[in-house]
Write a structure and sequence with these properties.
A 6-stranded mixed beta sheet has the order 1-2-3-4-6-5, sandwiched between helices. Helix 6 crosses helix 7. The protein has 8 helices and 6 strands, in the order H-H-H-H-E-E-E-H-H-H-E-H-E-E. The protein has one domain. The chain is α/β, with parallel strands linked by helices. A hairpin with a 2-residue loop joins strand 2 and strand 3. It is 32% helix and 23% strand.
């Protein structure tokens, strides 16, 4: 895993860090929307900051950050943004999964179909990290499991008392939100009216789950200088 990073030079810098740039780097899709949003604000976007606290300071953000997971034959998990932030005097490790209208991928049941030892080792480790039964319900979305686990892993690595996994949704109709609500409820951090759920894990880390509605201007095929919030 890389340990040396350089500063971005605008949204296009993000493209090179995608697993499949030609497929994923398109207007109206999550990777470009997240890049435009974060580059515009040069800070934690206000919709995410609102979930974390009143006084939120961005300390470090890494583009398309990969986090190794147990079960090496299955690969790493990759967050659109990983950030270290301080909110209301607390240090938080933040993993951001951006979405427009894309689904959360396979269900656990679909992902496990014909699974070998590597996948089963990984799933057991993810469930242990999140303190849920192994295997979890087959209807849960597997992507949400490993993104939340990535936040917990990095919180431990950076000695942060809290781990946050936030879905930054640019969908005008909040597509797939029911999947996220089902996941949060099963993990024991049901989403509140304010858009976030919290749970103290047995390891001592506080897990924060939330959905933040991103500004629609960032999903449109417009230059960064046009039609964005001031």
């Amino acid at each position: 895993m890389a340990r040396i990073f350089v500063a971005t030079r605008g949204p296009d810098y993000w493209k090179a860090h995608l697993g499949d740039p030609d497929r994923h780097w398109r207007p109206g899709f999550s990777a470009m929307a997240a890049a435009r949003c974060w580059e515009h604000w040069q800070d934690v976007p206000p919709e995410i900051a609102a979930l974390l606290g009143r006084e939120v300071t961005l300390q470090l953000a890494v583009v398309e950050h990969k986090v190794p997971l147990p079960g090496s034959t299955v690969g790493d998990t990759q967050c659109h943004v990983f950030a270290l932030v301080r909110a209301n005097g607390r240090d938080i490790a933040l993993a951001v999964e951006a979405k427009v209208d894309e689904p959360f991928g396979q269900t656990v049941g679909e992902w496990l179909d014909g699974a070998g030892p590597g996948k089963r080792t990984r799933l057991a480790a993810l469930c242990a990290l999140l303190d849920i039964s192994d295997p979890p319900p087959g209807t849960l979305r597997y992507e949400l499991l490993h993104r939340a686990a990535a936040a917990v892993i990095e919180a431990r690595r950076f000695h942060r008392p809290a781990a946050a996994m936030v879905v930054q949704s640019f969908s005008p109709s909040a597509r797939w939100h029911k999947d996220f609500l089902a996941f949060a409820a099963h993990v024991g951090a049901p989403i509140s009216a304010e858009g976030a759920g919290r749970r103290r894990l047995p390891c001592g880390t506080e897990l924060i789950l939330g959905r933040a509605a991103g500004a629609q201007q960032f999903r449109a095929p417009l230059p960064m200088t046009e039609g964005v919030p001031g």
